[in-house]
Amino acid sequence: MTSSERYLRKQERSAKLAIWMAGRSSRNKTLVDKVCRWLVVKETTLPPEHDFLRDEFVDNDQGFDPDELDRYQRGEEIQP
Amino acid sequence: MPAAAPFDPQAIVDAKYTERPVKPGVTTKRTICQTCDIACSVVCEVKKGRVVKVRSSDNPIFRDNICMKGIVAPKGFANPNRILHPLKRVGERGSGQWQQVSWEDAIADIGTRLKAVIAQHGPEAWAVSTSQWNTATDHGLGRRIMNHIGSPNWISGVALCAGNTAAVNRLTYGWFPFGDFNNTKCIVLMGHNPRRHSWTPIYNYIRSAQARGAKLIVTDPRKSSSAERADIWLPLKAGSDTAMMFGWLKVIFDEQLYDKGFVANWTIGFEELKARVDEYPLDRVAKLTGCDPEMIAKAARMYATSGPAIIPWTPITDMQRNSTSAIRLQCILRAVCGNVDVPGGELLQGFNPDVINESEIEMHEVLSDEQKAKQLGSQEHPAFTYRAQERFREPTKRVYGQEYANLVMGCHMATPSATFRAMAGQGPYPVKAFFFLGNNPIMSYANMPLIIEAMMNQDLIVAHEQFMTPSAQLADYILPADSWLERPWLTDTFGWMSTVRTSEKAMEPPGEARSTFDFWKQMAKALDRPELVPWDTLESFYDYRLKGTGMGWDEFVATTDVHFAKPEFRKYKKTGFATPSGKVELTSSILGDLGFDSLPYFREDPPYDPSYPLKLFTGVREDGYFQTGHRHIPEMRKRHPEPIMFVSPGTARAYNLSEDEWVEVANELGRISIKVSVRDSMPDGLIRIPHGWWKPEMKQGAGHLSGALKYADAQLCRDDDEFLDREQGIPHLKGVPCQIYKVTPGADPARVEEVDAEVTV
What is the reported pLDDT for B746? Predict the structure, then answer.
């Protein structure tokens, strides 16, 4: 086996492990799942100053009021 | 609504990465946003039976995949003008006179009239236009019914956006790959510009990869936000992507940077390809693309030597006169550089073995060869029609276990332009019944005047819609459609990837809105074929599809955010590739057999026309809108109140244009009104036109179409031969000749804005 073949196999094992962990992390039921989730969170969390997904529209969203949505759907005037 | 809350970075960090506390009176549902085609996993918060908030998933692998369009969805679907009951046209087509009817009466009459069209003209006289991005619960049932009834004439916007890419990718290595962003060392964006609020997960992947040290190469005529972050930006001429890739291959071959072992063992046609590539020395490529030859060479070396590299899907090469060659060259670059089906490269995932996929549900095998041969456009432009794609039946069975793989819905389509010509009475046979679901066909394809003519020539038009779109205004029936908040969903990513995800139903649909599943179930009954959709409910249909998992829908959705197939790499070593030769076809045997050039080639622009000295590109998304939708949502309209054209400072000076000035842009096909915005990021001579503009508050009906006749870019998109890709028949939207005309307010009374006060935005 060549060194490039060995490197590729190592990459494949690593990628398979990552997908397995993502699957367990997504299930989040058993202790192993939760450990996987903790590791995934730890690995992927960026410090706030480097978090490129921070966005005012998203981060400040407080949702809608259900009664206001009802009035809007009926065509009644609502506060802007 | 986003509130003006104090911005506390630490609080945001804490909120993002921990389970949210349960709020009193609020229940949560794990859903998949279907506002656009990306399908972000999100959470809906429900109060008093309504979705009141859409936020990002608690699952770290989907973290922060949400944009402004998803956030405003609860208000968008609560719009007072949403269609909540079936409507039947009672005046002339396009008169705007409607009568509310029951679903049962509507379906019965539609069935009777559709059967009459089929009896008189044959089943091929029925055409359907849709996709499954937003109709979602179609799941191939529409194709299944069409295949049994005998119509091959299904068209979709995916013909010029991703679906055609999938079909053309198959020509080279038998499947449509997805890039492994998590492990890649180099990303090439060909004109694509994922952003925080558009293609959000892809933006997330790219930024994360860059944070890990991956290189970014961007080819784009304008200096996009991605170009600003790139290691190399190549500002090529619009539509010259094919020439650029020939230049890259020239460098890669001349400098021996390709994967010689893979090329020797797993490809056919290398010498012929190399000879073709030799026709493109860098000085010629520099002339064709307008880029510096040294920078072209540097980018080629970076792509070939950085380690596993990816060229993610891009809409840019889906929409140009050289589309097939451009997509093929992307495939060829991936292959010769050893990036196919390896970690960090481009993964050929195949079907998920545990779930019955949509290609199987569609049952293409029941449509006869005689009817397949009638598929519109397949003789002239066969690449994504049955005529080409039927040749993958044996190879696909050999590698992926079944004969038909309708990847991204794009592998067995009629060509849109040929279909509209037949609808207008200019085809080989008449098409007289037209259905569209979650689709605004007048504005979604090239040559809008032809599409309007085609629709006015129909015996029966049925729309399944949420709003009175310009296309719906010309229908005979409009049936009210549900939204993604109001239905469950199981997605296999349109057959493309082997991951399967679930979405819970978060609230009841309003009025009489029904799912696409219900629509097709009722249609099967109306056509006397109820056995084609035998499942009583969508949930029981999902039980059937999931039986391989050992779970029913209720258990699966309760326990599963994402269901992965067992990951494998370099599967071709066991099965070969799903091509006729079993290898990567650098020379396409299928294109050759069909009488086309089996190698990629570059068609230059038609001769310069001094009447239209500028070039426009369209198909561009604005963050607040997806395609032709969402202009009715006040929060989004405030962000994008009018269609805006981008021009360079040089072009603005040449035409004496000022910021916010209204102008008209025209070419041989049509004319639109648009506002000017002068941008440093734009090159001289090129203008950017946004896609899909109409205004729901403007006057409805034929001759007006809520402003579509004034603003829609489809009026400038030509579909004559010079502006169609030869193999696919899709239009050239990246560099269309045009001219800018200054306007005097009130000079043309016919084009004065007409506002219908009854419609609320």
Answer: 57
A contacts of B3 (beta carbons < 8 Å): 60-62
Instruction: Measure the CA–CA gap between B560 and B499, rounded to whole angstroms.
Output: 11
Q: Which residue of B has its CA nearest to A39?
A: B60
For an interface test with B, the pick among A20, A26, A27 (most B C-beta atoms closer than 10 Å) comes out as A26
Instruction: For residue B312, give every residue at least 6 positions away whose Cβ sits within 8 Å of its Cβ, in sequence order, or none.
Output: B179, B181, B187, B188, B189, B192, B202
Selected residues 9-48 of chain A with any CB under 8 Å from a CB in chain B: 11-12, 14-16, 18-19, 22-23, 25-29, 37, 40-41, 44-46, 48
For chain B, domains (ranges, CATH) are: 9-76 (2.20.25.90), 178-347+576-593 (3.40.228.10), 614-751 (2.40.40.20)
Angle at B27 between CA B25 and CA B33, to 5 degrees: 135
Taking CB atoms and an 8 Å limit, are B560 and A44 in contact across chains? no
β-sheet bridge partners, residue B246: none
Residue A22, domain extent: 3-73
**CA neighbours closer than 13 Å in the CB half-sphere of residue B96:** 13
For residue B597, what pLDDT is reported? 98
Q: Which of A73, A74, A76 should one mutate to test binding to chain B, selecting the residue with the greatest count of B CBs within 10 A?
A: A73
Q: Which residues are within 8 A (CB) of B535 and not within 5 positions of it... i.e. 6 or more apart?
A: B521, B541, B544
Q: Is residue A78 situated within a structural domain?
A: no
Helix (H, G, I), strand (E, B) or coil at B701: coil
- pLDDT at residue B132, as a whole number: 83
pLDDT of residue B12: 40
Instruction: Give the Cα separation of B222 and B241 in Å (integer).
Output: 14
Pairing of strands B215-219, B186-190: parallel
A12 vs B contacts (CB less than 8 Å)? 342-343, 569-570
**Helices within B307-355 (DSSP H only):** 323-336
- Calculate ∠ Cα B485-B490-B495, nearest 5°: 125
Which among B2, B47, B562 has CB closest to A56? B2
- pLDDT for B18 equals 53
Per-residue model confidence (pLDDT) at position B744 = 73
Q: Mean pLDDT across the stretch A6-34?
A: 94
Instruction: Check residue A60 and give its pLDDT.
Output: 93
**Does residue A34 surpass a pLDDT of 90?**
yes
A18, closest residue in chain B (CA to CA): B182
Which residue of B7, B60, B180 is in closest CB contact with A40?
B60
Q: Does residue A79 fall inside a structural domain?
A: no
pLDDT given at position B5: 38
Q: Among candidates B384, B455, B387, which has minimal Cα distance to B422?
A: B455
Tokens 């001759």 correspond to what residue? B703
Model ipTM? 0.94
Measured CA to CA in angstroms, residue B708 lies from B144, B555, B692, B761 at distances of 33, 46, 8, 16
Tally of domains within chain A: 1
Q: What does the pLDDT read at residue B745?
A: 64
* pLDDT at residue number B684: 98
Low-confidence ranges of chain B (pLDDT < 50): 1-17, 748-761
Spacing of C-alpha B217 from chain mean position: 23
Residue A11 maps to a domain:
yes
Q: Which residue of A has its CA nearest to B12?
A: A59
At residue B2, the pLDDT reads: 36
Predicted pLDDT of residue B126: 98
What is the percent of chain B with per-residue pLDDT over 90, rounded to a whole number?
A: 92
What's the pLDDT score for residue B621? 84
What is the rounded distance in angstroms from the CA atom of residue B12 to the CA atom of residue B9? Answer: 5
pLDDT score at B757 = 38
